[in-house]
Design a protein that fits this description.
The protein is of the alpha/beta class. It is built from eleven helices and eleven strands.
């Protein structure tokens, strides 16, 4: 698991980091004392859990949690604070936990046990974020596609939930009103090749299923907030704020349908 700890008091931050390292020695742990650094981390890295103080000087920890949820809706937020009066506000941003300082080892251990059980079913190599902007993460690192259209094609395959998509159907979505001719079909094959090579380079080529004139994704290999939402997962439902694949205009219909659920 990957953790981010934020507290503006260095001795407290060091103590919490030390406790977490003791309990989770195989995990990746990042820590920082200010909001600016925390925001940089969250923009570049994918985290399973963030431990936040509530009072962080330049920004309230609740506001920082909201920003984190906007960037990574599936992140677990646990507040660690010396004040009990923020609890109601904390859970309004769908926090996973609320712990009072000084943080005790047994207290942290119970929280981690709960998180482990909660996330066990989501422990897959590829994580797909559809709420907000569309992003793909492999082993915690954001996946970069060679072409933006290759990324958009993968997004469309994700939206289709494993159903096959023909070349004509995909081109109608990716190129909208463009004429479906030899030039478009040739460019589409270039996009497909780029998308498949992107996953091949990270050892996940099996995620794309290709048959004659049809593409689909193997949903069993993917942890996706959209799929968990549809399965009734409370965490995913709470993480949806009305924004679905904001990068792509064709996804607006799905965003409206999810809002009505």
């Amino acid at each position: 698991m990957r953790f981010l700890l934020v507290d503006d008091v260095r001795p407290i931050l060091d103590e919490e980091t030390s406790l977490l390292k003791e309990l989770m020695p195989e995990s990746e742990i990042y820590s920082c004392t200010n909001v600016r650094e925390a925001r940089k981390y969250i923009e570049k890295e994918h985290f399973d859990v963030a431990f936040l103080d509530v009072e962080l000087g330049t920004m309230n920890g609740i506001a920082l949690a909201k920003l984190m949820k906007d960037t990574q809706p599936d992140i677990n937020i646990i507040f660690v604070t010396g004040f009990s009066n923020y609890a109601l506000e904390a859970f309004s941003v769908h926090a996973t936990g609320y712990l009072l300082k000084p943080l005790q080892k047994e207290q942290l251990k119970r929280e981690l046990t709960f998180l482990y059980e909660k996330n066990k079913a989501e422990d897959k190599k590829i994580k797909v974020q559809t709420f907000g902007n569309f992003e793909v993460w492999v082993d915690g690192e954001k996946l970069t596609f060679g072409r933006q259209k290759a990324k958009e094609l993968f997004a469309y395959l994700i939206e289709r939930k494993g159903a096959g998509v023909t070349t004509r159907e995909a081109c109608a979505v990716l190129f909208e009103d463009s004429c479906y001719d030899h030039t478009i079909k040739s460019y589409f094959q270039t996009i497909v090749s780029d998308m498949r090579n992107t996953f091949k380079n990270v050892g996940m080529e099996d995620i794309i299923r290709k048959s004659y004139n049809s593409l689909s994704v193997d949903t069993d290999l993917i942890d996706c907030d959209y799929y968990r939402f549809l399965s009734g997962d409370a965490k995913a439902i709470n993480g949806y704020n009305g924004e679905f694949m904001m990068n792509y205009s064709w996804a607006e219909f799905v965003a409206g349908a999810l809002t009505e659920v």
